[in-house]
């Protein structure tokens, strides 16, 4: 994880391990990232962050072994400011 962060110009300073669902993971991530002023979140695989990827990239860069998603990354299928979501 340290090498992965360094490859993209970041320094890993805090590691969070959780064996929980996405809602608890999102709360833990928000707490720790906010406390430490995280510029990036590093994960060992995309599956570790898939359910909360929007939360991560709204606030920090997301680093996976395959790719760096910059802060503010727009996910495929995500509506832009001109589109309106319709439920039903």
Mean pLDDT across all residues, rounded?
83
Weakly predicted, low-confidence segments: 82-88
Q: Supply the number of structural domains.
A: 1
Q: Quick one: how many beta strands?
A: 3
Number of helices: 3
| Strand composition percent | 5-15%
Apparent shape: globular
Task: Characterize the biggest β-sheet.
Answer: 3 strands, mixed
Indicate the percent of residues in helices: 25-40%
Strand order in the sheet with the most strands: 1-2-3
Structural class: alpha+beta
**Helix/strand order:** HHEHEE
Structure in words:
The protein is an alpha+beta fold. The chain has one domain (2-69). Helices cover 32% and strands 9% of the residues. The protein contains three helices and three strands, in the order ααβαββ. Strands 1-2-3 form a three-stranded mixed beta sheet, covered by helices on one side. The longest helix has 15 residues, at 22-36. The protein is globular and about 30 Å long. The relative contact order is 0.15. Mean pLDDT is 83; it is low at 82-88.
């Amino acid at each position: 994880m340290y090498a992965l962060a360094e490859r993209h110009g970041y320094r890993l300073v805090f590691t969070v391990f959780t064996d929980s669902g996405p809602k608890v993971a999102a709360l833990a991530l928000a707490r720790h990232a906010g406390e430490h002023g995280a510029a990036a979140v590093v994960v060992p695989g995309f599956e570790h962050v898939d359910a909360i990827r929007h939360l991560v990239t709204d606030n920090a860069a997301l680093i996976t072994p395959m790719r760096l998603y910059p802060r503010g990354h727009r996910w495929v299928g995500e509506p832009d400011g001109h589109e309106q979501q319709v439920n039903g």
